[in-house]
Amino acid sequence: MKKGWSIFMMLVLMIGALAACGPKEENPVSNDTGKKTEDASKPEKLVVWEDKDKSGWLEKVAADFEKENGIKIEVKEVEMATKMKEQLRLDGPAGTGPDIITLPHDQIGELAVQGHIAELNVSDDVKATFSESSIAAQSFDGKLYGLPKSAETPVFIYNKALMTEVPATMEDLYAFAKANTKDGKYGFLALWDNFYFAHAPIAGNGGYVFGEKDGALNPQDLGLNNEGAVKGTEYIQKWYAEKLFPNGIIGENGGSAMDGLFNEGKVASVMNGPWAFGGMKDAGIEFGAAPFPKFADGTPMKTFMGVKGWHVSSYSKNQEWATKFLEFITNDENAKYRFEQTAEVPTNVALVDDPAIAENEGAKAVALQTQDAVPMPNIPEMGEVWAPMASALQTVVTGKAEPQAALDSAVKQIEQNIQQNHSK
Q1: In the Cβ-directed half-sphere of 105, how many Cα atoms lie within 13 Å?
Q2: Which of 372, 326, 377 is nearest to 61 (CA)?
Q3: Which first-to-last residue range defines the signal peptide (predicted)?
């Protein structure tokens, strides 16, 4: 009896083992859509906020991305300079915001600190697509928060009827201005009572806004009253003291006054940005554009550079796919297409010599000048710099203060403002 029971148990175990080795029924999918597991996290759409009146180019690029990835792109226009970040602060936490936004780079630090934009995780190959300075502009506290869209910086613009060639050096430009400033006409004009433009000669002579520490901007290290900054401000002072610049281009209305003089054919050359090209064309001025002449010792005019970028909202539930879209729209092919549609100059290094840019005098000038330009600091403390520096420069150019005293006063005010508004 025991023997029979043992044989029976052996048969049961063998049948169980065979069943375990047999084919298993596949688990059913987790939903009834039939989608593959790897597609489960793919969103149906991504929402993109582009600048006002600038979204036309996205129609083709978005369609290409949708065809390649099966994700629809929904585009909404929001005015970038003033409304984009404020709308993100409201719509992001409410769950009605975008996956992707565009911003001027000097807003990155503020929004990163407040947690509104996400750090990007992209390869070194992707970063190498762009100029180092533009990637630096998209970074904050050693982390990357965006991919460059376009860059702009002041360049040297001249009336070809009044100036046949670009002066070789800034010293040559000064000599030209001395010889051609008379009877209400001017050889060269710049808004050097405005720190955005004055930064070029100040930094070109050794001044700087913030130093660096551990790869990040250090707001405790101000270089706006050092020896180089004073030398650069003395250089600015000379142009006003010698009446090479008219009194009318000082202050808030200086820009429109300068534009008017140039477009009336009364100025041979100016320091201005690509935003001025349209008005010059409309005025019928045949103008040329070039990177700024360097100083005689080879030191460049270090203009401020602004970089517009693409960013991923920290509130997006699709950050990985949003990053893929950023990589797609900023690749060389799509960056070139955007330039052709908007005339905004990309920072893709491969496009500097592309005929689309190389044969466009204005775009080439911007692309070349950005190589010597300095990204405007994107840390929140930069907001404390503008007003004191504007005040200092205006007291200098109107003869009310000497450069060292004016800059010392500005730096003292900046330091106090930083301590008061940004101390942790």
Answers
A1: 29
A2: 326
A3: 1-19
Question: 């670009």: which residue's tokens?
Answer: 166
Which of 277-306 are b and which e, b meaning 16 or more Cβ less than 10 Å from the residue's Cβ? Answer: beebeeeebebbbbbbbbbeeeebbbbbbb
pLDDT in tens, 181-227: 999 999 999 999 999 999 999 999 999 999 998 888 999 999 999 99
User: If DSSP codes are grouped into helix, strand and coil, which group holds residue 205?
Assistant: coil
Q: Where are the beta strands (DSSP E) in 168-323?
A: 208-213, 216-223, 269-272, 287-290, 304-312
Assign residue 156 a region: left if phi > 0, alpha if psi is -120 to 50, beta otherwise?
Answer: beta
Structure tokens at 22: 């047999």
Taking the CA atoms of residue 162, residue 167, residue 170 and residue 173 in that order, the dihedral angle to the nearest 10 degrees is -30
Answer whether 301's CB lies under 8 Å from 372's CB.
yes
Quick check: 149 and 309 in contact, CB under 8 A? Answer: yes
**Helix, strand, coil in percent for the chain, rounding step 5:** 45, 20, 35
Specify whether the backbone of 68 is left (phi greater than 0), alpha (psi in -120 to 50) or beta.
Answer: alpha
CA angle, 162 then 270 then 382, to 5°: 175
Query: Comparing C-alpha atoms, which of 160, 151, 399, 372 is closest to residue 269?
Result: 160
Q: Quick check: pTM over 0.70?
A: yes
Rounded Cα distance between 31 and 224, Å, is 62
Provide the token pair at 376.
């405007």
Say if CB 206 and CB 229 are below 8 A apart: yes
